[in-house]
Every structure is written in structure tokens, then in C-alpha cells.
Design a protein that fits this description.
The chain is an alpha/beta fold and 478 residues long. The chain contains 15 helices and 19 strands. Bound molecules: pyridoxal-5'-phosphate.
Length: 478
């Protein structure tokens, strides 16, 4: 890049520097001394502030330039700095050991690719304002009931009990089922920690089992092997949008008298044998965190077909207070309520869930098409009999020894991606609960989640593909 257009002498007047910035259109000028060494940086913001403070156009820039400026020695270091400053700095001079300007690096944040982003372009603002203006901003209000009714109906289940988040939904469900000390609950090795934490909160003992190598979901064979006389429940987690094998899991649960509590936090709208996830558990739990398919900011919901459990969860969610007798507490409960404001957003989100799922699906297809050209990437499978996955976060595997390099390179290019969850069995605090988990350990080291937002397009996916291809084809292990 030609950096001469950005350079001004330390003897320049403010007016000259403004002209320089105007001509380069980079918003920044590099100020050099007589030996051409950089001694300061002046941005259009610096100049605006100088003028507002009474500086004259003919004054020397030296007084107003930033002497504590940021510089880098090469583009990679510059990218790290842009990232460190969250892409707020736009231009960085690249200098040699003597502070001579060699080049400059530019941050192009229009190229930033977020991992996830809520799509709030329906009635979200309208309903939120309506709830706000009604002054019903806590957990009483029409939107909570409407959201509970419409979301449970969407899942094909009779009742919905909205909660403050997905973790409280899981804890509420397990508590309502009477699970506690002395009981065992089977969970998969690959999941977000909330699944196992909810079990631990109840005093029950989690039992961590391995996953299927192709679906990355809990392996029914491993569930079967882990059942003991103490096992009360199993929590199948529909991981990264992929439904678990609910046929086999339902059979095993029936045979062994186990409760199924589905963790559907990552799979709103996914199906098994034509039935939506959430309709297989005695209680099923959802999260509406900001990166989920639909969001309420923070939020969750338990859905159930049971009159009794619906009633019990409503009491437990509200401090254990009797529904007939105000301020009479029947059980030790919690405050796990969702606010009317959250529910207002959720209701609007639900109105366009099909559209959201469709663009996610098309985006995943686009990734699959572009990635066909790259060797060494395996996309999440979507061809299982009976399972209809959704695209929560586009997910793929790469060689284990290349995964960190890929993530690093994407980061340097302002592209958000993340590694798969660390297996629970590999974390000190959970290790004691784990059965032998071989598959999850391997998959977790290979997996990454890629940007899944409606701003993604073919060109951006191609950019990711080029970066990944370069790394995956190199011989060097990273
Ligand atoms: C599989 C799984 N379970 C549970 C949760 C917990 O949900 P929340 O973050 O709303 O508490 C999450 C979410 O992040 C999740 O991914």
C-alpha cells in the first residue's frame, strides 16, 4: 500500500494535515520528523477536538498530534492490535526498527464476521415498547402467557413455563421431577456445562457418557451401559442443532423407567421422525440466550404435557408460593421467572422462526457447497434417517493438529469462530463423573463453529474457505 499519502511533516500546519487526511480518506495522518521517523499520529478526531478547543488552522500540528500512538512491525501484529482494541482503531503505521514508516495496516470492520447475531427485524421492538409502556416490566403481563402458549404449541406440547434462562429451566425441570441426592442422571460428554451443572445443583450424581461419532449426540448404547438401579433420568442434548436418536433413547428410557429431560437449547425446530424436539421429554428445556435460534436476551422455557408438572414448575419458579394462597410457601422454590419484556421479544421472534430457520438452512448449504472444494474439512452430517437437523451454528471438523491454527488465522482476519465444547470428562471438576469417553475427546479437538449470521453470504464464506484451505493444505502442523 502507498503510505506516502498519509505522511505529513512535523512542521505542517493543522490545515495541511486536514488536507492530507481529506486526500487519503483514511481518517489519519502520520507525522514524521526531518529524518522521516514517525513522531506522532493525528486523526480527524484529534483535529476536531483541537479546533473545538480554539486551535487555529495555521497552528503547528506538533501541539495537537498524539505522541503516544500505536504502531506495529508487521500486518499480523497490526491485526492482533485491531482485535485487542475491538476494531476501534482504523489505521496503524507499520514501522522498521528505526521508526521509519514502511507501510500501514487498515482495519476493515465491515469485514468482521460475527459468530452469531440475533435477527430482531420483526415485531420485537414494537412488542418490547408495548410491554415497556404498559409498565408491566417484571414477570406479570400478557406477553409471558402468550409466549408460553405459542412456543409450547410450536413444539407440539401442551404447556410452557418460561424461565429466566436455559440453565434455570433445566434445574427447574429436574427439581419438579423430584431428582436429588442418591439419584443418577446421565448426560453426554459434549455439551455446554449448564446441562451437568443443573444436575449437580439438585444434589444428584451426573453420569457422563460418550457421544456418537457421526451425529456428535449422546450415544444410546452408552446410555444403556450406564444405567444402574439409581438412574432416574437421562438428558439428551440436541447438540449444534442435531437431534439425538430419540427412538432408541425413548425405548431405553421406557425399559428402565427413566425420565427423559431433553436439552433443546441448541435445536429449536429440529425434528425426529416428524416430531419436534421438545415433545419427547417428560419435560424439555430451551434456552433463548442471544446466540440461540430465537432469543429473549436471556431466557428459557420448560415444556411439558403433564398437568401436574406444569403446576409444580409454576410454583417452584415463583419462590414455591401457593397459587391459591398468596405469601404461603408450600416448598422451597426459586425466582426463575421470565420478565414481560423478555417474553415480548420472544413472542415476536417466534413469529418469524420459520424464516430464521430457512436462512440458516440456506447458509449451511452454501457452506457445504463452498467447502466441497477444500480438503480436510468435514461438515456436520445431515443425512441421518429420521433426524431433521437445524443449523444453529454451522459446525465442521478439521484435522486435530490444524484446528488451533485455523481458529487463530480466522481470528487474525476478524472472523469469529469457536472451538467445540471441551468434553466434560476433561475438566477437573467433572472428571470423577465420567465413564470412558473416547469419541467425544477426539471430536472435540477437531470441531469448530463458524459464523452463522444473516449477514453472511457466498463471498464471505469463500473468504473463510480460502483462509482454511491455505492452512489445511500446508504441510506444517500448527
Ligand atoms: C446445550 C445447552 N444447554 C443449556 C444451556 C444454558 O442456557 P442459558 O445460557 O440460557 O442458561 C445452553 C446455552 O448456552 C446450551 O448450549
Amino acid at each position: 500500500m502507498d503510505c506516502t499519502k498519509l505522511i505529513c511533516s512535523k512542521n505542517s500546519m493543522i490545515k495541511d494535515v486536514m488536507t492530507c487526511i481529506d486526500n487519503s480518506a483514511k481518517g489519519t495522518a502520520f507525522i514524521v520528523d526531518d529524518d522521516k521517523k514517525i513522531v506522532g499520529v493525528a486523526t480527524d478526531g484529534d483535529i476536531r477536538r483541537a479546533l473545538l478547543n480554539g486551535a487555529g488552522l495555521k497552528e503547528n500540528i506538533k501541539t495537537y498530534m498524539n505522541r503516544n500512538f500505536i504502531y506495529a512491525s508487521d500486518p499480523v501484529e497490526a491485526q492482533r492490535i485491531f482485535q485487542q482494541y475491538e476494531w476501534k482503531i482504523k489505521v496503524i503505521p507499520l514501522v522498521d526498527g528505526q521508526m521509519h514508516i514502511k507501510d500501514y495496516a487498515e482495519c476493515n470492520d465491515s469485514q468482521h464476521m460475527a459468530l452469531a447475531q440475533p435477527q430482531l427485524n420483526g415485531n420485537e421492538y414494537k412488542y418490547l415498547m408495548d410491554a415497556f409502556l404498559s409498565t408491566w416490566i417484571s414477570s406479570t403481563g400478557k406477553y409471558v402467557t402468550q409466549f408460553e402458549e405459542t412456543f409450547s404449541k410450536y413444539c407440539g406440547v401442551r404447556y410452557g413455563v418460561a424461565t429466566s434462562n436455559g440453565t434455570t429451566a433445566l434445574h427447574l425441570a429436574l427439581t419438579a421431577l423430584g431428582i436429588g441426592e442418591g439419584d443418577e442422571v446421565i448426560v453426554p460428554d459434549i455439551t455446554f456445562a449448564a446441562t451437568i451443572n443443573a444436575v449437580i445443583y439438585t444434589g444428584a450424581t451426573p453420569v457422563i457418557v460418550d457421544i456418537e461419532k457421526d451425529s456428535w449426540c449422546i450415544d444410546p448404547n452408552e446410555i444403556e451401559k450406564a444405567v444402574t438401579s439409581k438412574t432416574k433420568a437421562v438428558i439428551p442434548v440436541h447438540i449444534y442443532g442435531q437431534p439425538c436418536d430419540m427412538g432408541r433413547i425413548s425405548d431405553i428410557a421406557k425399559k428402565n423407567n427413566l425420565y427423559i429431560v431433553e436439552d433443546c437449547a441448541e435445536a429449536h425446530g429440529a425434528e425426529w421422525d416428524g416430531r419436534k424436539v421438545g415433545s419427547f421429554g417428560i419435560i424439555s428445556c430451551f434456552s433463548f440466550f442471544g446466540n440461540k435460534v430465537i432469543t429473549t436476551g436471556e431466557g428459557g422455557m420448560c415444556v411439558t404435557n403433564s398437568d401436574a408438572l406444569n403446576e409444580k414448575m409454576r410454583i417452584l419458579r415463583d419462590h414455591g408460593m401457593s397459587r391459591e394462597r398468596k405469601y404461603y410457601h408450600e416448598v422451597v422454590g426459586f425466582n426463575y421467572r421470565m420478565t414481560n419484556l423478555q417474553a415480548a421479544i420472544g413472542l415476536a421472534q417466534l413469529e418469524h422462526i420459520d424464516e430464521i430457520l430457512n436462512w440458516r438452512y440456506s447458509l449451511e448449504e452454501e457452506y457445504q457447497k463452498v467447502f466441497l472444494e477444500i480438503q480436510g474439512v468435514w461438515m456436520q452430517k445431515n443425512n441421518f434417517k429420521d433426524r431433521k437437523k437445524i443449523a444453529w451454528l454451522v459446525s465442521a471438523l478439521v484435522d486435530e493438529d490444524k484446528r488451533e491454527g485455523v481458529l487463530q488465522k480466522l481470528k487474525e482476519n476478524n472472523i469469529d469462530a469457536r472451538p467445540f465444547f471441551t468434553p466434560l470428562s476433561e475438566m477437573e471438576i467433572y472428571r470423577e463423573y465420567a465413564k470412558d469417553c473416547v469419541v467425544s475427546k477426539r471430536i472435540s479437538k477437531m470441531g469448530l463453529n463458524l459464523p452463522t449470521t444473516y449477514e453472511m453470504n457466498e463471498d464471505k464464506i469463500k473468504k473463510i474457505a480460502v483462509i482454511m484451505n491455505e492452512l489445511l493444505c500446508s504441510q506444517e502442523n500448527t
